[in-house]
Amino acid sequence: MHNGEVSWWWQARGLPTRRPSLPGGTQADVCIVGAGYTGLWTAYYLKRADPGLRIVVLEEAFAGFGASGRNGGWVTAALPGSRSRYAAHPQGRRGVRELEGQLRETVDEVARVCRDEGIDAGLVKGGTLTVATSAAQDARLRRRLAQDRAWGDEEDTVRYLDKTELTRRLQVTAAVGALYSPHCARVQPADLAAGLAGVVTRSGVLLYEATPVTSISAGRARTPAGDVQAPFVLRCTEGFTAAMPGQRRTLLPMNSSMIITGPLGDAAWKSIGWDGFETLGDEAHAYIYAQRTTDGRIALGGRGIPYRFGSGLDHDGAIAAATVAQLGRILRRMFPVAAEAGIDHAWSGVLGVPRDWCATVMMDPRTGLGWAGGYSGHGVAAANLAGRTLADLVRGIPSPLTTLPWVGHRSPRWEPEPARWAGVRGLYALYRTADRLESAGRSPRTSLLARAGDLISGIAHLPRAAGSLDVQ
Ligand SMILES: Cc1cc2nc3c(=O)[nH]c(=O)nc-3n(C[C@H](O)[C@H](O)[C@H](O)COP(=O)(O)OP(=O)(O)OC[C@H]3O[C@@H](n4cnc5c(N)ncnc54)[C@H](O)[C@@H]3O)c2cc1C
After folding, report:
1. Which ligand 1 atom is at minimum distance from the Cα of 40?
2. Helix orientation angle between 92-117 and 379-395, rounded to the nearest 10 degrees
3. CA distance 128 to 214
């Protein structure tokens, strides 16, 4: 079994040949720091809107090296954060609904760009299933559905599937029901990142790899090779942001870990089903997410070791044997026939979590400094919407995107260490214990534990769609 090496997604397509580094100091109209989805989509839409712009993207490793080349491949319309928190914006609930509507359209926008630009990322819009595998999980699903209805989501956005309806789509051991939403697509994440980077560079954007930015200030991004001077400098470094000077407590670098099986045989797929390629999650407190890949594997992710002391980052993506074993147990419990395919590869990545779990798209017109991120595990589609929004903000064009409630949103800073480390570790310990008790049919006590976890995290626990521990 391979462990780390960035991700299986990258190993499957082959790690890329590095593009040149920044040769020396230069000037640009826009300088983007970080070549993940956020940076690349921003460059894409800026260049399309104004082909004459000189856009420089500076990337520490290579395009798609971060979470964008390691994720679960859910192009999901799920809100990156809590409805009630976004509703504190002057636009209130209307703004939240507008943001949710834009995210739903974004799933189709990503598919459209892939089609129009010839990016073959295995995108299939099969929707998403959240299964309940215990009575307690099922009760949470139903409460979540009621909450969604109260916010105005109709059957065409989310609906409950009983066990019979679920089984027609896929067989998950012990599943008692599920929520289904059509607003999600499955993708091969590294193919999307690599394809997008190719489109962007062919359009004339200058993408420099192996070029770490050591500091950002108004009009300037500093690198060891020289400075890029630009009236707009955009920080698109999500889970890596804590390593930038002055940003240690802005976004918590949360780890997420994945495993992928070998290809399953025809008989196994016949027994599982999953012909619709829905993305699949469960309703546990310490949540898992999965997809059926184009070549017939199951990729499954979950938390593992959630956070390293002092916002430490693990660039290689290697994960602990205990995490592989833990994810393997969940996989075999859900899909016993998957055991025969073994586990080919395991890896992890970092995503950015703000203290209130709500994402931000920010542009200060005075300084020309902007940033987007903090998608809390829902960044694949959100980064596209954020990129389009940053492009409008840079160009100073008021649009329906520039008034969305995440624009200019300010999250509190994280606590200093060791409180940050103890809090995140404690939170997951509580949720895991709650999950164990629920599996054993002792759910009444779990709500107390889960609520203690909520107090630590500062997130509303129910409904999960409104921003509790729905983090990939
Ligand atoms: C394992 C895992 C599973 C996930 N699953 C999903 C999912 O299924 N669906 C979903 O919606 N979201 C998911 N996410 C979250 C999602 O992948 C991210 O939110 C999203 O990819 C963030 O994109 P980004 O461009 O903002 O950041 P990144 O992709 O992390 O890109 C940031 C880039 O900045 C570069 N960089 C950092 N510091 C510097 C510097 N100083 N100088 C220059 N460059 C720098 C990095 O090398 C990196 O390439 C997952 C995340 C992980 C880790």
Report:
1. 25
2. 100
3. 39
Nearest CA to ligand 1 atom 9: 74
As beta bridge partners, residue 75 has: 185
User: How far apart, in whole angstroms, are the C-alpha atoms of residue 96 and residue 107?
Assistant: 17
Closest CA to 9 of 121, 162, 85, 87: 121
The residue whose CA is least distant from atom 53 of ligand 1 is 349
Residue matched to tokens 């008790």:
437
CA 27–ligand 1 middle distance (angstroms): 26
As a residue count, the chain comes to 472
Q: Is the pLDDT of residue 434 over 90?
A: no
Convert the pLDDT of each residue in 219-237 to its tens digit. 999 999 999 999 999 999 9
Q: If you compute the radius of gyration of the chain from its CA atoms, what whole number of angstroms results? A: 21
User: Hey, what amino acid is at 400?
Assistant: P
Q: Cα of 175 to ligand 1 centre, how many Å? A: 31
User: Whole-structure pTM over 0.85, yes or no?
Assistant: yes
Pairing status of strand 30-33 against strand 55-58: parallel
Ligand 1: which atom is nearest the Cα of residue 372? 26
| Residue 295 alpha carbon to ligand 1 centre in Å | 24
Q: Is 234 in the pocket of ligand 1 (CB under 6 A)?
A: no
- Ligand 1 atom with the smallest distance to the CA of 254 is 53
Q: In the structure, how many helices (H) and strands (E) does the chain have?
A: 12, 21
Query: Of the candidates 344, 73, 100, which has an alpha carbon nearest to the alpha carbon of residue 186?
Result: 73
Nearest atom of ligand 1 to the alpha carbon of 66: 30
The CA distance from 189 to 210, in Å, is 21
Residue 348: both structure tokens together? 């992890």
Say how far apart CA 242 and CA 321 lie, in whole Å: 26
- Work out the angle between the directed axes of helices 37-49 and 379-395 (0-180°, nearest 10): 40
Burial class (CB in 10 A: 0-12, 13-18, 19+), 457: buried
Q: Is residue 384 a contact partner of residue 45, using CB atoms and an 8 Å limit?
A: no
Q: Would you say 361 and 407 are in contact if contact means Cβ atoms under 8 Å apart? A: yes
Share of the chain above pLDDT 70, in %: 92
